[in-house]
Protein 1
Amino acid sequence: MKRRDFLGHVAAGSAVVTMPGFLTGCGVQPATTAADPTPVNPFMSWFGVDQAVVARVMSELTANGADAADLYFQHTRNNFLQLEDGIVSSAYSGIEQGVGLRVVIGDQTGYAFTEDLTLPSMLAAARTASAIASRGPAIAPQSYDPMAAGTLYSTTVPWSDVGIDRKLPLLKYVEAQARAMDPAVDRVSVYWNDADERVMIATLDGRLVTDHRPMTRVTVTVNAKKGDEVQSGYSNIAAREDIDWYTEERLKTMVREAVDRTMILFDARRPPAGEMPVILASGASGILLHEAIGHGMEADFNRKGTSIYSDMVGKKVAEPFVTVVDKATIPNERGALNYDDEGNAAGATTLVENGILRSYLHDEISAKQYGLAPTGSGRRESYRFAPMPRMSCTFMEAGPHTKDEIIEAVDRGIICETYTNGQVQIGAGDYTFYVKNGWLVEGGKVTAPIKDVNIIGNGPESLKRITMVADDARLDTGGWTCGKNGQRVPVSQGIPTVLVSSMTVGGENAG
Amino acid sequence: MPVDLKARAAQAVEMATRAGADDAWATASQSRDVEFEYRDGSLEKVKDTTSQNLALRIYADGRYSSHSTTDLNPDRLRDFVREAVAITGALEPDEYREITPPALFDGRPTQDLDLVDDTVATLDRDQRVVWCKALDATSRDHERVISATAGVYDGTARSASASSNGFTGEQQSTYCWFGSEVTLRDQGDKRASDWFYAGGAHVGDLPDAAGVGREALQRALVRLDSQKGPTRKATMVVDSRAAASLIGRLLRPATARSVQQGQSFWAGRIGEQSFSPALTIIDDPLIRRGLASRHYDSEGIAARALPIIEGGVVRNLYVDTYYGRKGDMTPTTGEPSNLRVATGDKPLAGLLADVGDGIYVTSWLGGNADGTTGDFSLGLRGHLIENGTVGAPVGEMNVTGNLVDLFARLATTGNDVYPYSSTLSPSLVFTDVDFSGA
């Protein structure tokens, strides 16, 4: 949709504006305004941050020496809408804009940011960050080489051009579907997020990367009532997509999941407590990989020697049918990235290949220490933070077994199906994930629903205990966010159906 | 030169009303934060930042929305505010949305909460490095240490709010924290690790840095040779440092929003004896030098001590203005501040001695709780309680149950309040808890 169409909606009085106010003079303008395409480099167009300014700030940042340095310009517009008690009566919009300035010298990092993108302000921040170093000036480039734009999540319409009038009906549709699916559904809330994030990264070695990173997520929560008993459940979907991604079918599938997950809770019980075989259903169970191995493979922990995986590269850690990959280049995935937040092309890193531990996830600092090329895994929450190694889309490849074979192989255990959260202790390797819905397996058959149990295991031990991997690998469609050292980044995860021969299941009747 | 935040907030309110808002509430804030991290004998990271933000709530034609921006360029800010008012107009009207009435913010407390220490602004690199070195030296003083990271974190936060119906207010606070994280070589590839940080609003309240580093090392050392704990029903002693997170899970659905939305086990409990008589929790925003002290909350509601639970009887919930109106509850505040959890008369050692046999929890790992039903399941690490003392370290365990049942079985509390948290809780003793492990 062109901006002209959008303004047409405004003129019709039905729509409004999530157009960026920073496009000077474009707040609410007559419909005769010509459409201007979103600029290739908004920072240059909107803030006058051209190559000369970048070069000047970079010189100041590296005036006391630098092995590496970068400027991370970011402008993010977030929109949030909430449907509750039948009406969409709450919205939030936010702009986060700033530039983070980093200088790295040896093992040392100096960091500053400013939200004021004027030259004096940026120079002051550069001086603050540069105080970590005390050598002579580094040679800062006078011109920058613009890198090719990525294509992993090229969308037709930026979120800034989509008015609330186009979003409202989708929230209403989700609510109506949820109510129609089961008469016990008592209350429905719908939460909408969309964001346009634009970054420009300039590096000391002369690269200039720009990336437009759209993101959207819809969550539906359901309360169901049977007599006096109330149960709540939810589901969400998220991707780097535009509004056309929200087809009726996709939304209906999400609502179906939320209603099913809620209704089953009336019959669900806690499983018995203790150690038992655990079947991880395909999709969201990728949380196992994220916690049991992913974090432990982030190279910042390993270069410090603090991860349980610090001395395991090249060793056998799992059966030959286990291959685990972190791949940022899956189009439109929530965890996808064209370039990481250090301006390196994002790619795929094989963590475990046929059971052998292969590679950590590196940012530039760790890659240099290990004498390797960066894996494009340097990420940050925003301009407020220095980057560190992070996951993107972490998944296990398909294996030789089938889901049915796996269930038949279990005499007494559980299936884990949906999750709310997980956590890991990097050093000890102990990790947990919280299972919202699952099933009891008895005598090779699925028997009864279970709910609300925490599962705890040890990363390397659990990898060894993956005794079966099915052929049904898939990525989860939910909107996962990973937190590390106070920084949150969007991620994706996936897995085929997997059997872990023994894990500790939280439960009742501990005797 | 410090920015006039009061003027900035007032201008934003004026912009909003000029753009068509019936009412508006603006908060302008600014902060400076400095972070020094020191790893294994050398300075690793210095971060020094100044941040600013403007947040705006808009009420127009029976409709409501909220907004925030870090872009304070005057022209773009005016466009942003205009757009914010336009967005509000596109929503559906909601009879329960109204700006905070003056009755809730008039006559709010003005006593000095002593939240600002001017010396924080004068801390220099040398002082921070001295602390880092002291932390580093003691936290690495053991042959098993693989790595230790010491950190010093300090800063100042200021905000000012203004509203179209007469609210003006300013709040400021400082903080200064330091501590270490220590990782030790354990059995095989395993590492034992823990951390300890101390801090508060005043530099003068900080303990000795070397002692803090020693404490971090000590906490990691007791984790060595940790084994998987047992599957059993047992008495659980939750350490005062770990208690804050458990209290937080209990209180999370204690809000008007959760109750009105039918997603809270707190519904219908006001005046009821729902928990153990040993449980008293007071929300107290007026503690001098308190980590979450304030004169007013983000809606401007006057701060006052609010009993949540007294002797196990539920007294109040967290009620903001919107869900208060919608759920027919009198507003208290929508946001927790400092929590004072009533203490018993014994130190931790005395509690453990009385328990004799059980599980002593020192930290949690993951887990969650269902706010509608109270069902919870949490990962944990800690120690066996053997012969009334701290025994072997255990981990890779879960505790599972229901929060209402659990806090009904709170047997007693200690007198050992953990000071470095806004939840001022002693150690807690619960009976008949389901543990799962080996």
Note: Chain A touches chain B through 102 residues (CB under 8 Å).
Protein 2
Amino acid sequence: MKKIIDVLPLAIFIGLVVVLFSFLSEKDDQLETVLIDSSFPEFSLKALSDDSRILSKDDISDLPALINVWATWCIACRVEHPFLMKLKEESILKIYGLNYKDDKNKALELLKRDGNPFEFSIYDFEGRLAIDLGVYGAPETFFIDKRGVIRERHVGVIDEKVWETKFAKYLDE
Amino acid sequence: MIPELGHIILITHLILCLIGGTMPLLAEYTGLKIFQIPIKKLSVFLFLLISISFLSLVYSFLVDDFSVAYVAQNSNINLPDYYKFAATWGAHEGSLVLWILAMNAWIVGFLFFTHAKDRDFLASVFSISCQVMFAFSLFTLFTSNPFERILPIPPLNGADLNPSLQDFAFTVHPPLLYFGYSGLLIPFAIAVSAMLFSKETKEWAAYSRPWTLFSCSFLTLGIGLGSWWAYYELGWGGWWFWDPVENAAFVPWLLSVALFHSLITSQNRGIFGKWSILLSIFAFATSLLGTFLVRSGILTSVHAFALDPERGLFILGILAFFIIGSLMIYSIKDFEHGEDKAYALTSKEFGFLLNNLLLVVLAVSILFGTIFPLIYEAVTNGKQISVGAPYFEIILFPFAIGLGLLQGVALYLSWEKSTSFDFVSRLLIESTSIFALIVLVLFVLFDNLYLNSFATIFLASWIAVGTLQVSKKRNLGYWDFLRKRLSVTLAHLGMAILVLGVGVVSSYSLEKEIILAPDDSIKFGDQVVKFESIEDSLGPNYFSKKAVISFDDGKDVSNLITEKRTYSPSGQLTTEAGIETEIFKDLYISMGDNLEDDIWSFKIQIKPFIRWIWLGALLISLGSFLAGIKQIRRLA
């Protein structure tokens, strides 16, 4: 009898660890699956470069394409910038920018200085579209296939390796 | 170069921790001399290594080395030097290095101030601590390396330190908390070693007590500072929010308090040995669990850390390895049963038992409330619920009453059996008089009486009188007695002051949302509040709207300044509250939204006795620290 009491703390603790572990893996899945295989959400926002131009989902017309969430305050975005430029220069696919909670002038200045890999950038100052997309932060990149369906999502810097392992396969479909 | 140096030294630290974590145990179980290592020297060397590693990170911050990713993400060229320094532990990666540094400091302290004849026992404590440090270093290097570089193109300016962390209290609050959390490593390592070596309860409890007290002291101070920071920085005027992160610190605090009380009994009477071991294990477990909850992203809170499920998995792994390991030893270990000593319901032993029962059940309830939203979400397939202040307050109240009543009489009790109960009538009369006096003072000050504050005010008087009158029981002069028992007097008195502060502030506070244009005024309690002026101003790394608001109570006029700051690198907004502190109350104003032109909304508050909460916490922290020192001296 005495022994069972001695094992009890162990049993309770293992139970707790199992429960926590299951939450952890669940959270993981949620991040990956949200919006995957659903079509790109509707939106109506100004263009970064032109206040009078209102962009909507239909403007993302040249598919397949990448949607890249970026901002000038995001250091990692500058790290991936050269890679995005390379994708553009080699005409691998079109990239659309989602400028996220940023200072408009700084953003335009950065594109002027470092080059503009985007067909256009949606200016999402309040993060409306970002909320619909479930954006975690910048940088983040979404792959949209020919039918306008989100197929893949990457949180963090996109580089050669990420491109090869995560995105390139959808291009051949 | 310097970041690489720090990186390599951290790796060296990791390897030496592995050696320190295995050799002494090998020496013990094989009996081979080869495995014996000089633990004191190694502990100091390890401490030097981790300090250099930490300092090289500090250096990278001070010289704005933005090629280091962690620096680039958490600092900015325009950040004042002092905050650059503090930014070192401002986010996840750097705080881990500090955490390891803190653990290492405790180990050095333990080895140098514990005068045990049994060298093997000390070696075992050292060894287990090294294993934990090894796990933390591994975690840091593999999932959260602060020395990682951004190459080839480092950014020019850096993203900036989270603006709400650019503040004095917040630069000190995390290190204190980390020292508190990591200090619980020592009781844990002692408990495991005590099981391995079948140490006598009285002996190991004596080794463990000072370090538990120190941990508790740092935790109290850290939590208190966090609460103070939240009060003036977040702009809500609250001092405790039952946020998951706060709970994650509150639970180990409760357990550390339970533990050192239990250790007093173990050390003096040789009982509660198994219980103290379990508490040591779980106090350490909850301090790790807190880290897990906060940094894996499974709970959301105001304390945003960079979230990463992989990190969560790693911490969970560390937690599972050490706690399951130690509980397995606990479950198979044969404990000696010769310790059962009889004690009466009126004994000090029983008092401590009751104290522990209340504290532990309270800790479990709070932990449950913190994790419950997760369980609910899982069971109902994604429906979300938040367990907030109402739940926790309902839970806390009966326990606070029980603990407070117990605390008032606790110091009168004697071991085995208390014989005289003369003190009860005296305690009742005196605490009732003090209670009446406080209520009277409150009535004079605030022109109002709130019945719902009576219970807490009485409790505070009860604890205070119980603490200060206890000398009458012994045949010592009053002041001699208090001096002799300075630490416990300070700590228990601190609790009385804290309880009083909580009781008064939660019923006597006034608050109101107002909309004012410049030169408008409004009546608020006995104050006339006037919006004097508003102007733009420029800080080192932000611009702000500064509003001057005057409070006039007919006698004095105080001008309060509240600000809305926009930090330029990140564009983040923060509100700086304007606070005027008096002994019995705070006047508090925080700026809301700009409605049009110069018309703004404000939140104004009067917070009576709020300072007493932190004063109480300060005394508790000081008391436990002194108690720890006293204990070390006694053992020397």
Note: The mean pLDDT of chain A is 81.
Protein 3
Amino acid sequence: MDLASLGGELLGTIPLGDIVLYLTPFHLFMFVVVLIFTFLIAISRTETQIEGSFGTLKDHKVSVGLEEFKARRFLAIICGLATAGAMITGDLFNFTLFIALIGIVNVGIVSAVKQVDVLDAAYQYGIIAMICSLPLFGGAAIVLASTGTLSLFEIASMASATPMMIFGAILLMIGVAGETGIAPFFATKAEMFRTPGSPFILIIHLSSLFVIIRAIEILLILVKVI
Amino acid sequence: MLVPEFVPAIFASWYIPVIYAGILVAFIGLIGIAIEKRDIHILILTDIVGLAMLIVVAAVGTDLAEALILPGLVVELAEIMAISEILISREMRKSDKSTSLFPLPLVLDMEIMKTAPNFLALVLLAFGAFLTGFTGGAVAGAGILLYIISRKSRGLPIAVIEGIGGISGIAWCIWIIGFVLLFIAPELWLLSLFMAACGLVLKVSSKLGLIGTMMREEFKRE
């Protein structure tokens, strides 16, 4: 599928040697939206949860300490910037690296919480993210081997897709699904949300939503079925 | 065909077998993960899948693929460190007490600690300074570590070097200046090469020395 029908009129390219960034309204919109969300998260404070308990009338306040709040805010900002980078990049391997960074940072955001269940879920999510780095990087490497380039701009101008490219694209999609914790692997991620500290936890979810949209665009560029 | 003519045909024909080998290694790792029940073992076995990822990337065998292996390795390391941090913090929450960072027994009853550790440390330092660069830094740092551990295991006092992190920072700056100089003024390549190499040897060795300092502080606490 050509770039114009995927992301609107091509506004221009930024050639940085081998890496050619291409700008379309779609990319710019996603990039700016992620940056706005990151800014909102950077200036906000965490929520405090009130948990009711069974049998008594007492309630239990769960708050986030200052140290943990700072670490979590820092990691949330890194996660936002990585998501913004994944939106604008025109290089397949940079895209996979940004996604791997999102995966690591997602584990980091919940690493200091006090609930054992949440830590358990984060551990499971981290194991899946690590296993899925095989299809993620392997898919990018197979695309490199079958096309000779990692630049999406050049891949988009190729006429047809070889079976190896389609295989690489499928592997890449499996990798993205595992690293960002979407459909088959969502259970652990839902569990990770149960900790207090809402705006920083939400970036975990937001980053995966944006990354899916971009990953599907890249998939259409690689596969060329339509 | 994408492969240039000067590449021998046998190299190009290895690509598919290597991909199969990578997938096979990953499959073996996944079987291990499915069978194993203890969390720490699962974490270690996951690293096998990470190695399979490196095999698949390395199979491409071009310069670009070589440049992709390093980030892949770094990502793999960062992930394993993040997950092990999760495991540690979970176990600490479960047992409700904080544990030492490096729970090694203080008494190392080894002959190498008694016979000539100072000489060995000196040889390692000299050899590291001769090598320069990253390897030299690692060798010299191993020398510093050996010195500190041997002094400690014999119960002798150690000359405390404060601000060893500062040396590391300054060495890092020398390295970066040398690196930038290589691009700005290519005619000064020898100077910048030596700046980078000497900065790196200081940086890595002081980093390893820092590990020694931290370990000593842990021992002192016990």
Note: The interface with chain B takes residues 18, 93, 97, 100-101, 103-104, 107-108, 111-112, 114, 116, 119-120, 122-123, 126-127, 129-131, 133-134, 136-138, 140-142, 144-148, 150 of chain A (CB under 8 Å).
Protein 4
Amino acid sequence: MNNRADPMLADPLKTPLQDLDVSDPRRFEQDCWQPLFKRLREESPVHFQAESPAGPFWSITRFDDIVEVEKNTEVFSSEPTIAIIDPPPERRSRMFIAMDQPEHDIQRRAVQPVVAPKNLQEFEALIRQRTAEALDALPEGETFDWVELVSRNLTTQMLATLFDFPWDIRHKLSDWSDAVTSDERMTAGQGLKQEDRLEIVMEILEVFTRLWHERVGDDVESFDLIRLLQRDENTANMVDDPMNYIGNLMLLIVGGNDTTRNSMSGGVLFLNEFPEEFARVKADRSLIPSMVSEIIRFQTPLSHMRRTVTRDTEFRGQRMKAGDKVVLWYCSANRDESVIPEPETFHIDRSGVRNHAAFGFGIHRCMGNRLAEMQLRVVWEEALKRFSDIRIVEPPTRLCHNFVRGFSRMPVQVTRY
Amino acid sequence: MPVIKFIEFDGTEHEVDADAGMSIMEVAMKYDVPGIDADCGGGAVCGTCHCFIEESAGPLPAVDPQEESMLGLRPDREGNSRLSCQIQVSDSIGDMTIKLPEFQM
């Protein structure tokens, strides 16, 4: 929908591969990333790029190769960080997504119960009620921004519920999520400077340190993330290690926010682009769970994860050195025609629909995947009860970002039954 | 042909004739036994085909490091927890009774 040509972007098919920046966020902003990644899968599936704003890095673009790298956690470490850019060492917060075993397992196990499906059943009625209220409040017959009134609104509410966060300032959670992922080096210079990001990180730490001390030992029967950390002996003193506490908070704020938000928006776009699929799911709502998985594949809300080579190694005939960055392009894996037939088609009940790369693989596979699926399922169940149409009236605005794939604006009109 | 009895969390039983050479996960999928998701399709990289082996006629293959890594993250892990994609049905293992967990994640 948003295919305008940018003279600054090199032609992905005619330019020599070594002259192309695979990480250029503008290809995601303009939604013209697919041809370059298809070319990489065919010509150079384990591809070295000597220069980029993030320094040299390898790109892995085939589905099966990404699975292999993610399984080999000894050679391909998640430390010190999991996005393409490196934070400076003194500002390196510690989060379990960027830890190896055994520390990763200990911290992940402490917070995992909050997103276990058993716990989610308790939340579902509340989520459904809040979703229904948000959808009932949407204007009819006039254009509004789906990103703001639905996707952002609902994911913020969910996150506030999971943290038992003060309801009146819950918007801060989404603001923080946007801020901490908006590093200028991932966004073609559009994001925040590191100093400004640091200020926001300090604010997050201050608010959550206060919440921690208010809650410690209060014996309230609650499954919010802060109390879960306090109750687990391995993480009961996490507040005393601020870089670890802030790291895990940021992980959960971003992980539980941007990703689901952008998939909520993406679904509207795909149903507009593939109207026959829209008609099918309207006629048969039992297709919603399967459609949710296909939305997540088609959106792939995080374009990549990054690993770091721990010792000199050879992978698919390419020699990698200790310290090399290896970027696993999930967005490419999810369009890999050798694993997913007709990958450019949005097919809501394709066979093996759950077998996509958007959640990653192995021990770091998305912890909140069942929560995300439940939120998206509830949104579509409630939306399709109310609306005979959700029509995009202007092309959406995409993020200029090489890590978070999503939308800042999506003007739509809805028609109620 | 070995017989596998699957017992869902709510107690519903499914007894099926399993083809040797298929994994337990593939058998469950083939016969539409609910309770196994198998998101990754059999690579031991998602952990959503977790099951409990209550009984087996013969000995089971050992848990390899990849399976161990994934099982280690299951909040409901027990001593008899396995990933059902990692055990191939065979005449030497023979009949099995398998309980399915309350949820996969």
Note: Chain A has one domain: 17-416.
